[in-house]
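Researcher: We plan to redesign the surface later, but first we want a full-length starting point. Tokens attached.
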């Protein structure tokens, strides 16, 4: 098992471009969608990466996006 899971993703995959682009986004600019004190199951930046990746792959269904994220 690799020490860094990113090693499992081939170098020339669109997911790497999406990840790098979203990392540059200032998350303070995004509206807060949850109530104060509520804990989200997933980090908002990770969710944004998943949505952008899905839309980039022309997938709009949450189930299909989840399936696409499971690809090696």
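Model: Full-length starting sequence:
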């Amino acid at each position: 098992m690799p020490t860094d899971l990113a090693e499992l993703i081939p170098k020339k995959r669109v997911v790497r471009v999406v990840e790098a682009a979203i990392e540059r986004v200032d998350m303070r600019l995004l509206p807060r969608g949850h109530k104060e004190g509520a804990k989200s199951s997933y980090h908002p930046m990770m969710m944004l990466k998943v949505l952008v990746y899905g839309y980039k792959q022309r997938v709009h269904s949450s189930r299909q996006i989840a399936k696409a994220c499971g690809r090696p």
